[in-house]
Amino acid sequence: MAKPSLPQGTRDFSADVVRKRNYIFNTIRSVFELYGFQPLETPAMENLDTLMGKYGDEGDKLIFKILNNGLADKSEKARAGFEKVLEGKNNTDITERALRYDLTIPFARYVAMNHGQLTMPFKRYQIQPVWRADRPQRGRYREFYQCDADVVGSKSLLNEVELTNIYATVFAKLGIDVEIRINSRKILAALAEIAGGADKMTDITIAIDKLDKIGLEKVKEELLQRGLNETQIATIEQYLNIDGSNEEKLVQLKSLLGENETGKKGIEEIEYVLDYGKSQIANHTSQIITDFTLARGLNYYTGIIFEIKAKGVQMGSIGGGGRYDDLTGTFGVPNIPGVGISFGVDRIYDVMEELQLFPQNVETGTQVLFFNLGEAESKTAFGLMQQLRAKNIRCEIYHEQAKFDKQFKYADKKGIAYAAIIGTKEMEEASCMLKNLQTGNQENLTQHDLLNYAF
Prior knowledge:
The chain is an alpha+beta fold. It is built from 17 helices and 16 strands. The strands form three sheets. Strands 1-5-6-11-10-9-7-8 form an eight-stranded mixed β-sheet. A five-stranded mixed β-sheet has the order 13-12-14-15-16. The radius of gyration is 28 Å and the shape is elongated. It starts with 14 loop residues before the first helix and ends with a helix.
């Protein structure tokens, strides 16, 4: 029999890890609620046509498709269908559903189905797992959680400002110093217009999005392969070499894009967010940085885009998002603008582990272990334990009568801070021996005092 194993790119989480992850989830959730966002959950799987074509060619390849039931009873159709799938074509005889790739498209589908009943602007947050058939590596998994906040039904740039502040607030609470990098897809559209034409925008953004991974020379090679000429690539290279402070970068950008109207609108958006950020982000350690190399390779973005990088650690982005002014149009409901951000919890966890940012008490589970010293003693202990639980003190009783050493070892392995010991003497005196297992100190308390002890 083969040894049990996990699918590649997935993980089990022990109690300590779950508690740390919940600390991150709860921190993010509390800030979402603080800013007036409402929770939403959608199914793990969507109809395939809901997802396909929304993430670009690269993203579509990473969608986990689910085989239809009963294929064994349709062997001829299945065989023909598989041949089409191998050619890169979808076939409803083989698959009609897929695991969700992100939370944004399912949200857009939800809005398209329910927009008549929603109060606009509609502000929702969603914390659920997503799946991508990616190559697993550090910080990149095939199953992982996303935490999204989106606003639909408003074109106001105040939403971008609020989302920027949500990023700053969350990472300040988690203790992570970050760079909030911003760009605008309008600026990238303007670049495409002056370097190859608007029809080249997807080719240009896909190549630029790989800059951090493959470097400038490889990006230029890819642009050449995508049909751009040397002059056009030289313009893009000049764009990618823009550097300096936010103000200096904007001066260089304005010079490069000239009077391009799309570019002017993109620059105005950036300047609006930066202007608010000078005063609103000042109380946090986060920095807003204009990064015109930022492309985010998803086709649905139309305006401001975000990407979050943690300082002091080698890690990919730990958050990202942007404006998508016609995402619901793909579902037959046009003209509902939206903007959203996402937190990459798995990468945030890895950053906090590496930088040792988790609070010491975040892993605390059981606070008090009641020893089991016999049937009568355990009944008394059980009654006290229930009263402590009613006061939100986390406690448990050892499952059977056993030697002291065995019960102490159990408490030690679980990291339990206190042992409550009630023997024959303590029962007669209505008392309890309470031992601090971290310091070794012990005190003899009345059972009344135990119930009011500051654990």
